[in-house]
Structures are given as structure tokens and as C-alpha cells.
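fyi for ur records
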Amino acid sequence: MNTDIQLQARCTAHEIRNHISICELYSEIIRKNLELENIKSEKIENALNCIKRSLKIMANNLIDLKSIDNICLDTYDLKSILDMAVGLAKIYIGDKQIKLTTNINETAYVTLDDNKFLACVVNIIKNAIEAIPEKGEVVVSLKIKDNLAKIKIINNGTPITKEQQKKIFTQGFTTKKTGTGLGLYICKSNLEEQDASLNLVKSDKNETVFEITIPVNAQCC
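which gave:
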């Protein structure tokens, strides 16, 4: 197996691992609701939708093992993609007292690979949640100006040091004890394949802000 294939396999495994945890936890939610109610409920329906979406993302990542250049671009409503990402990312809050909110008052159509883009946004929100030790806030905002959509993911957790900021998107660099150093590297690479960009805007004692920028096709009402 050559280096490129090995790298792709590692990247794919990283993404799959994140989404497997979602499936496992929501499966447990389904089981508990079935035991308590023995009927279909809104909670069960929401869980099934999340599992279905996560499995689709994992299937897409598995396809990547067969084709490194695999990417499927189409036109999507950006707000819908972001709402879905926030819904999926809530699972990572666990027992923490974290308020995960959105500030999205407009939307637009964009060209992207919905699975890859969704996985990137979920990963960044997950990182934001993990940066908060116990209690805090994560905000996902969207602003559209000059045919560009700017998505900001903001958290008030532990800041990234100046030295770490220089290496944050470098392959293999991580600040986590069990991290692979692939998450942000993969996100940045995948977004660039979709004509989008990912940048760390700031990180200080008040807040850390990551920003995704992507061209807009046509603005919605």
C-alpha cells in the first residue's frame, strides 16, 4: 500500500470513528424509548434520522477507500446543511453544560459535496465542544455578503496558544492525548476541494473562532 493510499485510509478511519459514536449513542436512545413507551415517538424519529444521515456519511467515506479523488458536487441550501450539522454535533455535549446555538437569519444555495461538507462542520463543532471543560457556549453563525457565505463556529472554551495556532492545520499535529492530528487537516483539504476555505480567525481568553468561506450560487428568500 503506497503512502497516498495509507493516508487516505487513515483519514477515512478518522471520519468513520466520529460517526460511529453518534450511531451507537442514538441506538441506545432508541432502545430506552422502546422500553419505556413501546411506541413511535418524536425522539425515536429524530434519532433514526440522525443515524440514517451518519450512515450515509460513513458510506461515502468507505467509497473514498476505492477512489481518492471521489467527490460528488451538487447544489444545496446552506442553512439546511448547517442545521443538520448542529443536530448531529449535539451528541458530543454529553454531560457538559454547554449551550449550542445558531445565529442563522438567511441562507443561500451553494455547490458542495453534502457528506464531506457536513462531516467537516460536525468535526469543527465537536472540537469546539471538546475545548470547553465543563460549562460554556458554542455558536454557529452564517453571514452572506458579496456572493460569499461565511460560517463562523465560536466557542468560549480553552484558547489555542499562539504556538499551536501556527500548526493547527498541519497533518499529524494535535493537542489531544488521544488525537490523530488529522481532523482539521482533513477538514481544510476537503473544503478546498469544494472551492471553500477554513481558517482560524482568532483564539484568545474570550473566544475561539473558526471560519468557513464558500461561494454562493443564488441567495434564497
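The beta strands are 74-77, 97-104, 108-112, 135-145, 148-155, 197-203, 208-215, 218-219. thats all i got for now
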